[in-house]
UniProtKB/TrEMBL annotation:
Similarity comment: family membership: In the N-terminal section; belongs to the HesA/MoeB/ThiF family. UBA4 subfamily.
EC annotation from Swiss-Prot or TrEMBL: 2.7.7.-, 2.8.1.-
HAMAP family given in the database record: MOCS3_Uba4
Taxonomic lineage from the root: Eukaryota, Metazoa, Ecdysozoa, Nematoda, Chromadorea
BP term (GO), one: tRNA wobble position uridine thiolation
Gene name of the encoded protein: moc-3
UniProt cofactor(s): Zn(2+)
GO cellular component labels: cytosol
Name this polypeptide is given: Adenylyltransferase and sulfurtransferase MOCS3 homolog
Source organism: Caenorhabditis brenneri (Nematode worm)
GO molecular function ontology, one term from the record: URM1 activating enzyme activity
InterPro entries linked: MOCS3/Uba4, Rhodanese-like_dom, Rhodanese-like_dom_sf, ThiF/MoeB/HesA, ThiF_NAD_FAD-bd, Ubiquitin-activating_enz
Keyword Cytoplasm tagged: yes
Keyword check for ATP-binding: yes
Main location group: cytoplasm
Positions of ATP binding: G47, D68, D75, N76, L77, H78, R79, K92, D136, N137
């Protein structure tokens, strides 16, 4: 019998490759075609961006854009599992693109190795129809949100810290709020913790990133059940998750409201009072005379007995500390009365000087300001750069984290 032909909704190659997701109800051939025609921008190629990019590339998104100006470092590898040891020191965006292409060469991957800001965001975003926020700082979250609203692009936003993760879809449908609807004013920068300071477990960002990829696939396939207007809260320690309903779009929102006052990207660093990156800021809260560098402290500890107060949480103190350090956390510096602090340090009336150290030299300055109010007979000075400087300049065997 000769070939009598057939009707195919999808190519043989794609049918073979994507067969398992083609068989899923409410996705099928139409969903796959929509996915292939989608252009998805991933902002941030870190712990969230890695699973988002790898799963979407594997699923057959037609075009993936990756925005990240950073480089792969050794302390990324425990959670940013798309990278290999051989890629340490290389561009994250370019390395992630290479790994996507090695898994699925049919995906068109565009790399944007820039620091996203108000001057370039619109030009980048306008080429995509879905955006994933995989960043770790407040200023960039507002920037991404506002540009998505201005260009009418749905936003899939995830975050993760320590044991916990959150996920939502913003600006997707007439009643769906944007990020600014829920948070019209940014938080105080001093209250914001990122994973550089607070830590995070790899499977937490893996879980949230995978779910971000799933939301993108549902949006691309026009599946009606998404997290638009909802917030998923994931507690990895307890193995629990819950979804709460968010309030509807705010008609008075500055960017998506009925009479918006933001019609173009603004200065988000000024708006948030913090840099648009996830690096730790180097604060300067004290006069130079109230600070010593690590070389000066090395010489001081060699010549006299001194008191050293370590303000880090106990979990960090356990990683490594100088033998003379006494662990009194920054929170304890705030809450404990002066006599308890003196007792913990073993300070007596003959002591005039004490030094304060932390991870990178920020919390130690905050602690000095607190301690000088409680123990004004003692001169407290912080150690510039903290243990990170100590490891880099004094003892290269001291564990960095």
């Amino acid at each position: 019998m000769g070939d009598i032909g057939w009707v195919a909704g999808i190519s043989k190659k794609d049918a073979g490759r994507y067969s398992r997701q083609l068989l899923v109800n409410d996705f099928g051939v139409t969903g796959q075609k929509n996915l292939k025609s989608s252009r998805v921008l991933i902002v941030g190629a870190g712990g969230l961006g890695c699973p988002v990019a790898i799963y979407l590339g594997a699923a057959g998104v037609g075009c993936l854009g990756i925005v990240d100006y950073d480089y792969v470092s050794l302390d990324n590898l425990h959670r940013q599992v798309a990278y290999k040891e051989t890629q340490v020191g290389q561009s994250k965006a370019e390395s992630l693109a290479e790994n996507i292409k090695s898994q699925n060469n049919d995906v068109d991957v565009t790399v944007h190795t820039v620091s996203l800001d108000s001057s370039n965001a619109v030009e980048i975003f306008k080429n995509y129809n879905i955006v994933c926020d995989c960043t770790d700082n407040v200023a960039t979250r507002y920037l991404i949100n506002d540009v998505c609203v201005l260009l009418n692009i749905p936003l899939v936003s995830g975050s993760a810290l320590r044991w916990d993760g959150q996920l939502s879809v913003y600006h997707y449908g007439p009643d769906c709020p944007c990020y600014r609807c829920l948070f019209p004013k940014p938080p105080d920068p001093s209250t914001v913790t990122n994973c550089n300071e607070g830590g995070v477990l790899g499977p937490i960002v893996g879980t949230i990133g995978s779910m971000q990829a799933l939301e993108v696939m549902k949006i691309a396939a026009n599946v009606t059940s998404t997290l638009a207007g909802k917030l998923l809260l994931f507690d990895g320690r307890e193995g629990k998750s819950r979804t709460i309903k968010l309030r509807k779009r705010d008609p008075n929102c500055a960017v998506c409201g009925d009479n918006p006052t933001i019609t173009a990207p603004i200065d988000y660093v000024l708006f948030c009072g913090a840099g648009a990156h996830d690096k730790t800021e180097n604060l300067k809260l004290l006069d130079p005379c109230d600070r010593v560098n690590v070389e000066e402290y090395r010489d001081i500890r060699g010549n006299q007995k001194q008191f050293l107060l370590d303000t880090r949480p106990p979990v960090e103190f356990e990683i490594a500390h100088l033998p003379e350090a006494i662990n009194i956390t920054l929170d304890e510096c705030r809450s404990l009365p002066s006599d308890q602090i003196s007792s913990r340090l073993g300070i007596n009336s003959s002591v005039n000087d004490a030094y304060v150290i932390c991870h990178r030299g920020n919390d130690s300055q905050r602690a000095v300001l607190l301690l000088r109010e409680k123990l004004n007979s003692i001169r407290f000075r912080d150690i510039i750069g903290g243990y990170e400087e100590w490891a880099q300049k004094i003892n290269d065997q001291f564990p960095l984290y």
